[in-house]
Design a protein that fits this description.
Radius of gyration of chain A: 19 Å
Number of domains of chain A: 2
Oligomer: heterodimer
Largest interface: A-B, 34 and 35 residues
Structural class of chain A: mainly alpha
CATH class of the domain at 494-605 in chain B: Mainly Beta
CATH architecture of the largest domain in chain A: Orthogonal Bundle
Shape of chain A: globular
CATH superfamily of the domain at 494-605 in chain B: Cupredoxins -  blue copper proteins
Strand order of the largest sheet of chain A: 1-2
Distance between the termini of chain A: 34 Å
Distance between the termini of chain B: 69 Å
CATH superfamily of the largest domain in chain A: Cytochrome c-like domain
Strand content of chain A: under 5%
Strand order of the largest sheet of chain B: 8-9-10-11-16-15
Strand content of chain B: 35-45%
Order of helices and strands of chain A: HHHEEHHHHHHH
CATH topology of the largest domain in chain A: Cytochrome Bc1 Complex, Chain D, domain 2
CATH architecture of the domain at 494-605 in chain B: Sandwich
Shape of chain B: globular
Number of strands of chain B: 40
Helix content of chain B: 10-25%
Structural class of chain B: mainly beta
Number of helices of chain B: 7
Amino acid sequence: MTEPTRSFDSSAVQRRESQGASTLGVATARGRGCFAALALVCLVGLAPAPSQADDAAQVAAGKKVYDTYCVVCHGVNGDGKGLMGVIHRAQQSGIVVYTYPRDFTAGMYKFRTTPTGSLPTDADLMRTITNGIPRSAMPSHKDLSVEEREAVIAYIKTFSKRWTEQEVMAPIAIGAVPDYVGSSESIARGKQLYDDAGCVECHGASGQGDGPSSPELKDNWGDKILPFDFTSGGLKGGTSPTDIYRTFATGLDGTPMPSYEGVLEPQQGWDIVSYCLELMAGAQVAQR
Amino acid sequence: MSNNREKVMRPVGVALLIGVVAGVVGSLVLANGWAPPPVQAAKTTLRTEVRPGELDDYYGFFSGGHSGEVRVLGLPSMRVFKRIPVFNIDSGSGWGITNESRAMLGDTYVGDTHHVHGSYTDGTYNGKYLWVNDKANNRVARIRVDLLEVDTILPIPHTQGSHGIFPQRAPHTEWVILNSEFRAPLKNDGRGDPVDASTYTGVHTIIDAEKMEIIAQVMVPTNLDLAATDYSGRYSFATSYNSEGGATISEMLAKDRDYLVVFDWDRIKEALASGKFNVVDGIKMLDGGLDSGLTLYIPVPKNPHGVNVSPDGKYAIASGKVSPTASVISIEKLADAFDGKIEPKDTIVAEPEIGLGPLHTTYDGRGNAYTSLFIDSQVVKWNIQKAIDIYGNTKPGDTAVVDRLDVHYQIGHTMASMAETKEADGNFLVALNKISKDRFLNVGPIKPENDQLVDISNEKMVLVKDEPAYIEPHDCIIVRRDIIEPIVKHRPRMDEHPLAVTESGIERDGKKVTVRVTASAPVYGLQRVEVNEGDEVTFIVTNNDEIPDLAHGFAISNYNINFAVGPFQTKSVTFTADKPGMHWIYCTNFCHALHLEMRMRLIVKAKA
């Protein structure tokens, strides 16, 4: 029973409430996040007219699911300010960094198959809800029925106007994993790109999330955020080669992780995948 | 008892007085800058108190005797930080309950750990591994220092009373040797005549330190007790108190001299390379008999127990527990004895009289030996060179003894800081006393042992503190903090466990159900799991929290299952769902303000 407040950090919740939208502006002004620029690109159309009765029933069902399973973290208003406050803590250089639940009111999502700045597909939301997110208190919901999960997706869309104002874009096409992924040549090219494309700035030379920029990184809500440490287990966006490719193709909206779609050629992308896998495996060898 | 207590209280009182004087002197220095002459000539800066919030200067790794565990202490505070379950079952950590630990333990939950020793590079600890023996069920366990958890348990066939264990000290630890204290039939299958003790054999087992496999076993006609290795990587040692080959206590005490047995690794390697061995049960068995050439049998008085090598690598010192002497063997002379140029007894360069019931010897790195005296309840400090100088030419009044300290009571092992390395620093000594009697509040028939901390940084030994210990540390090593602390991690790599869970889920294959669950404060990755009565259920649980000291528990109500998982650790358990009903699974290891809410339901649906 030591430190009863260390996880359930009510002061942190209050701090976030006081920061609110102003920090969102600060973060976008930094230019690292891709939200501001690409949000414009995505204002492409209006949502299709809803079939009102069915949707209302589904939203109502979704609210029931939400109030049973989600509200403690994501909050009554979907703004991520539920009772839980902090859903994960990490530590770097003795400083503890908090992760907060997703704020649905911003309509901004990290784990998508769609281009940066755009809304996720229903399948994207379904995947996150179903599988949960590693290294966070977002659990799996495989113990819910598909209908319950679909209903809660309908409900969380009610928290942001983006869902009625914007159209979901098509997923970024990712081809089959080429044979050369994991080869020593691909790893070597990937390492060069890891340096050249700036990955090393945040993720660090050893891949432990301790690059020179890492102490200053914040997300769009103004909260300090740590780059992924390749020695720390599962990537939140998935650990398969395709998952890794998709993560830097789409970027993680709302965080400093940008999209490299259109910046890198596909082969360059796969080379970086090779090197990321090497960072994860290499650290394991060094450890033993 | 009261007389004894009165007698031993006196030196403690003196020590306290010195402490008070030193304290006053210290404050005088601070007050006006004037430094009076030191109270004692030697260094007086040794810290013996650790205040709240301060960290210790040494790690102590203690065996746990027939509790089957290993303990990690801090010195000089003597606080117990961790009990590492090894050969026992532990409801808290889940050792003996989880699939991972059961793969190592099987169903054998009784263990008797005696000696913990670390891996070496160039004669000092490298902080990679610890090894510990199981005397009861003849196993050796290896502990990874980076996690301070067991990573391998190796059963040792052909042995009973697996007792003395020691790693190679130079150039680095490739071999670990283990002695069998109880001679036993090699093929111990109850056939032939198992009563005939003349058919029994002693075994010196050589283990590959990295692979944790048996390289070979050397068979000897005598029993083998405590173990040591030299500082060059050529010899290992074993005391033998039953050179008689007796099966009863009377038989074992018949002779006035037994043996210190020396094993020549150069010759053993040669014999292995040239195929001079038999293979029994897949193990290479070498003949280490009296005329084998692989071994040297040095006659030492009587029923010896301990053998310890001095930090300068020059001497192995064995003590005959029924003789008031210690025998100092010159390691330099061993080669000539193996070559037949001198007799085995000629390797003995001193046999000082030091007191009654001498057992184990430790060192301060300044040329002094400290031997535990079981019958006298003392630690005796004696000078090795002085003992050698007066050997065979002792005049009246000549003695190697420098100091004696009463300890409480009936001391077994004793160990000084870094004393089993070439970096022995002569700061602290631990007296591991078997009997505490009146030193602590009475707790019933089985009382704690008493591990006493002694300051040996000065000419006179000073008793610093008593520490009660649960059943029953035999031996320990005391390792400088700077060697261990940088090695120990807050968490392993998550993917060290091949089944690490980052995505929870349930899979069914016939009656086999596999449930993968993340634990992330304050939720498990699933809220509800439904299985059928009779299913074979496996839960795999990975703690996805990454900050230090955020462990989770996993108890399944009514199913006799609990374990703890530290950050990034994975543990699993398999059981038959034989109790229908709703059973809460809950977090047993306090993790969060909402720790009590961290639970999920296991629904076991009844058959028809």
